[in-house]
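Workshop exercise sheet. Pairs work together: one partner reads the sequence aloud, the other fills in the structure field after running the prediction. Swap roles for the next sheet.
Pair: D.N. / O.F.
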Amino acid sequence: MKLQTLIEGTAPLAPVGADPEVVDICFDSRQVVPGSCFVAQEGTRVDGHDYIDAAVQKGAVAIVCQRKPERQYPGVAIVQVDNSDQALGIMADNLYGHPSRQLKLVGVTGTNGKTTTVTLLHRLFRAHGCHAGLLSTIVNKIDDLEIPSTHTTPDALQLNSLLRRMVDAGCQYAFMEVSSHSIVQRRIAGLTFAGGIFTNLTHDHLDFHKTMANYIAAKKAFFDQLPPDAFALTNIDDPHGSVMVQNTRAAVSTYSLRRIADIRCRVVEDTLDGLLLELNGRQVSTPLVGRFNAYNLTAIYGAAILLGMDQSETLRLLSTLQGAEGRFQRLSGRGITAIVDYAHTPDALENVIAAINDIRTKGQSLLTVVGCGGDRDTSKRPEMAKIACTMSDRLVLTSDNPRTEDPERILDDMEAGLTDEERSLVLRIADRRQAIKTAVMMAREGDIVLVAGKGHEKYQDINGIKHHFDDREELENLLKE
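Structure field:
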């Protein structure tokens, strides 16, 4: 592709006279080949501007950058832009022929519920006979073809490449999680969304955003950028639900379990076997459990209606949907019910435990196993321990993904949220396998064991090495014994 076509829409700060043929786009100088266009990004750890020399030496014919290099590079086109991240997104969209414009692309953002919402939307539209793509924390899909997922939202080049493959496969819809990181880092720049959904917003990712104000602003920026012909579906039971859509150009719709809204849900029954809901006056039963899933299902129902699906057909298909992997996933054996859930924020943990407490019967004890990840926001650690301790009958604090941190130090941070009396009643077992085994051994017939924090993950990250570890697998083996 010619450079001038590739950079269309990036608003260079100075005229770019040259127009070389470009073979690909790279933002990692190690991947540059003769004919590449190298995009120098100001990363959080590495600044791409320091690698412009290396990119030119490897044959880059064009450089996109925020700071013009001091050296002259004869025969190399220099494109200076205000924001390299934004430019990369627009260029990726140009390179792959604007795939998001050829789909009805729906983005879901919020602290909790993103994975379940996009996964079930994808399943709903597939069950309806539509070709659809999925971009999620767990897996990416083109119809039913699975492509491993490494990030909640891929980088701009991967993202547009996947969307292009979806279009080429005949997909009419695509449903994607939109993380706050991807919004700030402009990974979704250049994409055209048909709709956006806001789930909720609570304490998370402050290691990256530093303040709640920044975190809120990141989520809101997604809705600010929606086009006028898109929809913005927001949860008005959340204190931030109305804020998200204050400045959007999209058509706003609301959903709620507690207030008057465009999509109104009432929980009729909530048991371990599932929910009975009333959506806009019509009842539907579902195997999903808990009020948090009632919110997810309400958002899914609303989005399907906004995308043109018949109301009766939507309700029929909703009743058949199973939950996403690692999201309130139930197992049983030896008379014990075990639940695996990805809850790794205070709000998510509270929601899951509250859902269990709402439906467990008298005499059923709840034993919770939970930890916190290393090298991440430390302020949520004591809060999560406090929630788990006060809402459970027994608590085992353990390791999650310690990464480069000492697991015992993470457990110290969690225990800091407990009183001396509470601490005496809590078990502290850093070895996650042993912690899960201990909880199962302590459980009596009829009890419930919740293992929270990792959900679908099949690894434990320790000092940069990902060791195979699957909460569900551990429980299955224990419940068979």
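Discussion prompt: DSSP finds 17 helices and 23 strands in the chain. What would you look at next?
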